């Protein structure tokens, strides 16, 4: 409670003398002035509180000189603290002079036994703190001058009667003690100002770092905004392109289908129409793949999980691609070992189906006539499913096991050119497997065949 009361009093005082309007950017000067205001405030409270017992004591012991100088100093202090129309610089000068005169008078009157020396020492430190090193040195210099004056007075016995405290000291001893005092004062002024300078330069460095961090943060935000807006543009562009290309392609394929109904006896005619149709479909696949890999690379493809029957999906994929395998003269088997209780899953149906299709199409593409392709699906645990796409095709050398999943990468371009597609299928398959929470793996032996396999979670939302 005392702290909050003090805090409120301090805030009120800062407002009262107009200090709270000061600009904090003034750095060290601002902090010095703030320190001075706090010292002034504290001294005015402590001064009044300590004045009462010391005045009573002075009256009681008949030390009227102490009573006079204490009263004078407290009055000046109160005037300084609460008189509004005075600059802070002037306040500092009067405050320092007032304390100096009080301390020096106490020293002269009470000698080394009083607290005058300590007050002088403390005053020099305070002046260094709130006004800087040069002002601190000036204070020590004035202090030295007054000491010299005192020594002269004592030496020539000018005021011997009023300075009984120093009569006990030989003049050499007095000079040595006072010189020591001055030296220690100097030492403390240098030490305090050195510390302040160190702290100040650390503060400046910290401010600079803070500014740099602030600037960096602003730049990052700007970059982020740019990336986000470019992502939005990319999404819009890809969606548009997808629509713009697919629509005319469906038109062409639809017309080809329509044309098949005519000239049914003209074999050449029908063959041309078939060429249009099959190449159109290939083109549509390639364009779709290119758009899809662009979206994946832009980070725009995300999981779209639903609950569906995986056994039915696998069977549909098989039925879709069976004609392609038969056309190539391959045996294509669907080994469905999924436990019927595990058929209902929560995953991304479109991605799973597309991923299987990419792998099976590759298996068919890279397996020669008479070979075998199989799709095996099993449920090793109630929460996982494993898929294997196996072929007895040309196989892949172990040297390509990693690079093969990079977009546009194709093995042995020169020799098997005719088989290659766009080089994107595996990159899409890999990305989809990862979105589904799995990892696409490969086992293969050149000339023997390949197996692509992956494991996925049956309830992807749980993660
Ligand atoms: P592509 O459109 O060329 O098939 P993919 O990304 O699907 O592109 O495959 C990349 C490369 O990996 C292929 O060019 C091929 O060399 C090799 N590859 C993919 N699947 C098989 C497979 N089942 N058997 C042999 N090689 C394969």
Report on this model:
With 463 residues, the protein is an alpha+beta fold. The protein is 65% helix and 10% strand. The chain is built from twelve helices and seven strands. It has helices spanning 2-16, 28-61, 64-82, 88-110, 116-131, 133-155, 164-167, 171-259, 267-297, 310-327, 349-365, 425-435, and strands at 306-309, 331-337, 344-347, 372-381, 384-391, 441-445, 449-457. Strands 2-4-5-7-6 form a five-stranded mixed beta sheet, with helices on one face. Strands 1-3 form a two-stranded antiparallel ribbon. A hairpin with a 3-residue loop joins strand 6 and strand 7 (449-457). The longest helix is centred in the middle third of the chain and has 89 residues, at 171-259. The radius of gyration is 47 Å and the shape is rod-shaped. The structure holds adenosine-5'-diphosphate (ADP). The site of adenosine-5'-diphosphate (ADP) has 21 residues, from helix 11 and helix 12.
């Amino acid at each position: 409670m005392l702290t909050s009361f003090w805090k409120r009093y301090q805030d009120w005082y800062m407002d009262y003398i107009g200090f709270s309007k000061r600009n904090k950017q003034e750095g060290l000067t601002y902090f010095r002035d703030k320190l001075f205001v706090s010292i002034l405030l504290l001294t005015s409270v402590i001064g009044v509180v300590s004045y009462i017992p010391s005045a009573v004591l002075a009256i009681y012991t008949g030390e009227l000189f102490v009573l006079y100088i204490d009263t004078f100093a407290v009055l000046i202090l109160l005037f300084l603290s609460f008189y509004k129309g005075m600059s802070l610089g002037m306040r500092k000068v009067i405050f320092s002079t007032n304390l100096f005169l009080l301390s020096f008078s106490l020293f002269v009157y009470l000698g080394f036994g009083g607290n005058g020396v300590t007050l002088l020492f403390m005053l020099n430190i305070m002046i260094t703190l709130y006004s800087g090193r040069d002002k601190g040195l000036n204070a020590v210099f004035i202090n030295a001058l007054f000491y010299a004056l005192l020594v002269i007075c004592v030496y020539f016995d000018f005021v011997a009667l009023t300075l009984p405290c120093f009569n006990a000291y030989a003049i050499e001893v007095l000079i040595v003690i006072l010189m020591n005092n001055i030296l220690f004062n100097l030492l403390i002024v240098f030490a305090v100002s050195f510390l302040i300078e160190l702290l100040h330069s650390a503060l400046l460095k910290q401010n600079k770092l803070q500014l740099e961090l602030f600037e960096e943060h602003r730049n990052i935000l700007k970059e982020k905004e740019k990336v986000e807006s470019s992502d939005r543009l990319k999404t819009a562009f890809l969606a548009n392109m997808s629509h713009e290309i697919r629509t005319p392609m469906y038109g062409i394929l639809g017309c080809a289908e329509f044309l098949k109904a005519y000239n049914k006896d003209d074999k050449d005619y029908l063959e041309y129409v078939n060429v249009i149709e099959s190449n159109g479909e290939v083109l549509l696949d390639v364009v779709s793949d290119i758009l899809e890999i662009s979206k994946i690379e832009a980070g725009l493809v995300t999981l779209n999980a639903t609950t569906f029957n995986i056994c039915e999906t696998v069977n549909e994929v098989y039925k879709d691609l069976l004609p392609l395998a038969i056309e190539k003269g391959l045996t294509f088997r669907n080994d469905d070992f999924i436990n019927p209780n595990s058929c209902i899953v929560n995953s991304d149906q479109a991605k799973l189906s597309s991923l299987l299709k990419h792998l099976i199409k590759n298996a068919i593409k890279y397996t020669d006539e008479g070979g075998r392709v199989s799709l095996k699906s099993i449920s090793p645990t109630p929460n996982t499913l494993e898929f294997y796409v196996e072929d007895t095709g040309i196989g892949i050398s172990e040297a390509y096991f990693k690079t093969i999943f990079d977009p546009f990468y194709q093995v042995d371009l020169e020799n098997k050119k005719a088989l290659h597609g766009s080089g994107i299928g595996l990159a899409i398959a890999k990305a989809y497997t990862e979105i589904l929470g799995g990892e696409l793996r490969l086992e293969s032996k050149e000339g023997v065949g390949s197996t692509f396999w992956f494991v996925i979670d049956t309830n992807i939302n749980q993660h």
